[in-house]
Amino acid sequence: MIAGEPACPHCGLDLSSLEVRQLWQVLLQADDLLARAGRHRVARQPVPQGAPAPPFQPSPFQPSPVQPPPVQQQPFTPPPGGPGFPSYPAPPQPSVASSKPWPVGTILLVLGAFGLVVAGTIFVTRSWEDLGLAGRTLILIAVTAVMGALGVWVTRRPLRASAEAVWSVFLALLTLDFFAARHEGLVGLGSLDVAAAWLVWGVVLLALAVAIALWARPHLSVVLATAVVAGGAGIVGAGFGAGGVVDDIGFAWRAVIALVVVGVLALLTRPADLAALTIVARLVVAAFFVYAYIAALVELGAHPAIGDVLAGGHGVPMMLMAVAAFVIAAVVPIVRFPATALAVLAVVALVVVPTADGASDEVIASTVALLAAVLAAVGIRGTDDWMRGVRVAALPVIVAVALMHLALLGEVGGVIGLILQDPWALQWNGRLDVGSVENHELWAVPVVLAGLLVVAWALPRWPEASGLRGHATSIMTVVAALGAIEAVVALRLPVWAAAAVLLALALVALRVREAVIAAGPVALFLVLTASTLAGASHGVSSATWLAGAAILAPLAIMKGPDVLRVLSGVVAGWLAVAGVGSLVGQIDLDETITALVVLGVGLTLVAVANLRLPEHPARVPLELAGAAGIVVGLAVPGSTGEMAVRWTLVGAVLVALGLAVAGRRWYVWPGGVSLLIAYVLLIVESGSSFVEAYTLPLGVVALAIGVHQTHRGSGTSTWATLGPGLALALLPSVPQALADPTDLRALLLGAGAVVALAAGVRLSWQAPFVAGTSILALLVLCNIGPYANAAPRVLLIAAVSAVLLGVGITWEDRVRDGRRVVGYVRSMR
């Protein structure tokens, strides 16, 4: 057999070769030929005793060489067994029928039994009234007796299928006999009402079913299914009948009575040792138990008053269901887990429902919290079915506690929303806004919070939550923080008290940060919440923000996760800026001083981040917080002189930090821009009308940068590096210098042009050479122009003619000199 092996385990033959594939096809063809040849049989002739066997004569048929069918080379796909394994077609297998059809006899029995029942029903409904009482009685007795005798006969044969059919007809006829006799008032059955009739007949039917099953078992070696079904139907009928016997009791009591009757009948079947009937009886009892449990719960909910529950008896069914569940859990181990859960839930309902009727929200919340705490704590005591049931029953109560705390968190969100909409609206001792918080009684808040803490402590210790056991302390810390925030809002503490409590808890969290992983994030969250709540009062917010910055500063500096350190640094910086600004504003100083203080705090944070924490993860967060302070300080309106001072401070600090810190050289650029803005503001403040006052400093700075760039890059054109600076330094003065060429401005402009020309000649820089030459030529022409205009026209004509004559005579030399000048200028950088 080739079973997916790459090679023969005995001889090592390669089973994936082409030859082996062809051999496989030949073997399949041989199997097919042998199968077809086996269809032709020859009758064997008897050989006389002692006669020699005839010699074997070979057939003259000469077989032709067997040519195996051509094998087409298909792309090889390895089977799931692994790569490289050959895949061969399997020989055809005979098909097996999936299911065995019913025998004809069974089908006939079923049809016959069904036909008899239908015929009996039609006879009773159609022809029954035409017969007298005696005739009806005789017919019922005769037919039932015949079917009973037939059942005994087929059972003793033994015929299993026939017995099932006949006994089912017998029991159906007995049922018709019983209710027909009740209808006619025979043998005293007419005095029974419908419910009592069902109760009596259910018991009788169960007894008959058990008797038939016990008598037939030795003959058939099995338990009749008809008896099992009839027994279950008898228990169901007796249960419904027992529930309707008494008319003047409530719906829940009827369900409990039905459950008791069904349970007793199910217990009475146990001595018979009929396993199938026991299973059916247990299923019936389970269904009636659920029915009675729901009915008792509905009854309790419909009459929740404590007087109705106790004195009125409306809570007794629920108590009985709790006791029944405990008894079932103790007696039947297989259902101990769900029975325990139902019993505990019944006790919880008996406690919560009467409490919720007419009691305050605080009493209800406290009751639920205490129940959740008790059940959660009890649930850690074991792993057996009893404790599993307790834990399952505790889950709905724990969910209710979680929903209550979600409602309290919603109140916290409402208060924060109002504070953000209207900050600084309260005095320092004003209470948190009552409009967003329910009027809770003070005693209930710690009770509900204690229940939450006990649940948070117990849940990680449940066997089902063993994966959370390592995080139990962190979970407890987070829940305690949330509970504290809920408490300060629910109690409507004064603003200062709420902020102080949360900041104190943040300090406690920092003290245990090394032992509790979540303590750092909890401290950050508490500080943020305290800072937000403190925004309700101006005085409280200043102190809270500064205290929060002081609390978070060590968290940003100390070792820990980088994300936490970065967030702490950002929040600490923002709180410091906001706290200082709020404090200065509270002193009622001028806005200018407030802006300067905030600006100073921002610059201080930037300086500390770069000088003291150059390699720390909190460096960038502090820089961002400082930048926020700088932006706020510059955004406060002020006079031109005040704004010039602020820009000067920013520029000086940034330039100094850019020169001092190796990784922040780029600070020089925003610092230089800030200084230029400050200079322009100072010029505007002074009211100067000289255009050079605005452009010359910028030109000097641009020239300095251009000279630096020209020395660094040898291939860069001087027009690109020095052109902007020369334009800012020289061109703005040209119009006024040409308008008044004898003014001091023209003299200074000419001096600057000479310096540019000399630098261009000395350094071979084209841009200053051309700029200096052009401006000097313009100044010379403008200075000569008035004198030339005042001289006689004949002298001017003569001078121009003489110059043209000289140029014409020496034209070739002038062309040569011009080319040399152009080449000289082009050779410049």
TrEMBL record:
Chain spans, region Disordered? 44-94
Entry keyword set: Membrane, Transmembrane, Transmembrane helix
Q: Which domain of life is it from?
A: Bacteria
Which InterPro entries does UniProt cross-reference here?
A: SCO7613_C
Q: Does the keyword Transmembrane helix apply?
A: yes
Q: Spans of biased composition, class Pro residues?
A: 49-94
Q: What is this protein called?
A: DUF2157 domain-containing protein
The species this protein belongs to is Aeromicrobium yanjiei
